[in-house]
Every structure is written in C-alpha cells, then in structure tokens.
C-alpha cells in the first residue's frame, strides 16, 4: 500500500508540473520522470496537453521516450535505439524493471533464459541481483528465485499503464469470464435444486418406511397379544380337565 500511495503522489506531482511545462521544459520533465527511481506509471503524464504538443517538434523524441516507458520494454528500445535518445543509466534500469512487469503479466513462472534475453543480462548472478535489489526491494514484484529450476516464480507484480487496445481486450476477457461464471452459477443452482429434491424424496421414503415398520410392529404386537390370551385360556382350562379325570380314576369301583 505504501508503494501505491507513493506512486500516486509522484504522478500528481509530475502532472501538476506538466500543466505549465512546454517545449524544452516539457522534454526535461519527461527525462526527470523516466529517471525517477520510484515512478512506474506514465499514462497520466502522457495524456497532458503540453506533453502531446511535443509531437512533430524538435523534442518529439522525448515524447517517444515517454511512450516507450509507458508501454514498451527493453527489447523495444533496442530495436529502435537509432531513433531514440541515448538512455541514462537510471532510465535503462527503469526500463528493465518495467520489462519484468510486462513479462509477469503473461506468466507467473519466468525462466532465467527468457529474462536474461529480454533484459540483456549475460549471467545468472547479475540477473538475480537485478530481480532482488531492483525489483523485489523496490516493491514492484514479489516472488521466489528457484536456482534449481532456473526460474523466477512471481507471486505479485505491479500493473503497468494500459497499452492502446488493451482495455478493450481486458473488457472482453472480463465479459467472457462473467458469462462463464453465470453459466457455472446456473449449473450449481440446478444441482442444488436437484439435491434438495432428492433430499425431500429421501425424507418421504424414510417416512414411508418408518410408517410401514410401525404398522408391522403394531400387527406383531396384536398377534402376540392374541396368542397370549389364547395360551392363557388354554392353561386356565387345561388343569380342570386333568383334575376331573384324576378324580374319576381315584374313585373305587362298585361291584
């Protein structure tokens, strides 16, 4: 958050200066902005009227430099170095930092070979020093250096100024994401509805089973009670018959 606040303050300062700077003063302001160690956003400065007035003048190359820092990379500079002013060491470092941010936009695992080629760095030691001292310590990226896999794993990267046409692409990407999200949400709601229906069906089935079980229990209980009454009646009447027969046997017979 401190880096973002500092960035906003710097942008406001340079925008205020650009309101009155013209010609050579505007060109010098661009050189100062692109050399500042803590400034990484240039779109608002580029949009200032007096800055745009440099187009087609003797200072138009300064405007090209500002466009490079707003949207370009170190490779872009090398390809057009003959048409641009010689960059100061501070500007060269700044452009390489911005290049790391651009690379981090497309992938979160940056191979060392790719970084060394895009940053024009000849060995791993210099590359790691640049990533640690000039990128991570500056707060514009966070990540882990994996020397075994020879790559930089990016966990956070500050955003750069939007390039021409990039906003439309971002909006299209967001619209596609929204459409997919709505489709997934609809599917989830359908599955929830189906699950609720199955739950109600299970409850009804469970209730039916419990009712049938209760009916069976009542039926068995009634049958057991009926059998108990029958056996009791038998037991109550059975001994009387036996006693009567025993008495008949015990009587002496008349001759």
Automatic annotation (TrEMBL):
Q: Keyword annotations for this protein?
A: Signalosome
SMART domains noted in UniProt: PINT (SM00088)
**Domain named PCI: which ranges?**
1-159
Name the Pfam families for this protein: CSN7_HB_subdom, PCI
Q: Which GO terms describe its cellular component?
A: COP9 signalosome
For this chain, the family text in UniProt reads: Belongs to the CSN7/EIF3M family. CSN7 subfamily.
Q: What is this protein called?
A: Uncharacterized protein FUS5-1
């Amino acid at each position: 958050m401190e880096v973002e606040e500092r960035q906003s303050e710097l942008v406001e300062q340079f925008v205020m200066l650009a309101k009155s700077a013209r010609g050579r003063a505007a060109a010098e302001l661009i050189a100062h902005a692109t050399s500042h160690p803590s400034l990484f956003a240039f779109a608002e400065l580029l949009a200032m009227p007096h800055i745009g007035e440099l187009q087609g003048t003797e200072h138009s190359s300064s405007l090209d430099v500002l466009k490079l820092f707003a949207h370009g990379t170190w490779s872009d500079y090398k390809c057009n170095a003959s048409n641009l002013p010689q960059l100061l060491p501070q500007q060269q470092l700044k452009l390489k930092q911005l290049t790391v941010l651009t690379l981090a936009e497309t992938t979160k695992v940056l191979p060392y070979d790719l970084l060394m080629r895009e940053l024009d760095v000849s060995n791993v030691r210099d590359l790691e020093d640049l990533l640690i001292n000039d990128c991570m310590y500056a707060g514009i990226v966070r990540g882990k250096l994996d020397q075994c896999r020879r790559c930089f794993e990016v966990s956070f990267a500050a955003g750069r100024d939007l390039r021409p046409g990039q906003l439309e692409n971002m909006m299209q990407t967001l619209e596609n994401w929204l459409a997919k999200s709505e489709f997934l949400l609809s599917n989830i709601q359908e599955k929830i509805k189906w699950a609720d229906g199955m739950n109600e069906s299970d409850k009804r089935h469970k209730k039916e089973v419990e009712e049938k079980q209760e009916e069976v229990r009542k039926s068995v209980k009634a049958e057991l009670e009926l059998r108990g009454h029958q056996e009791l009646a038998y037991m109550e009447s059975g001994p009387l018959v036996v006693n009567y027969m025993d008495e008949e046997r015990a009587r002496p017979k008349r001759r």
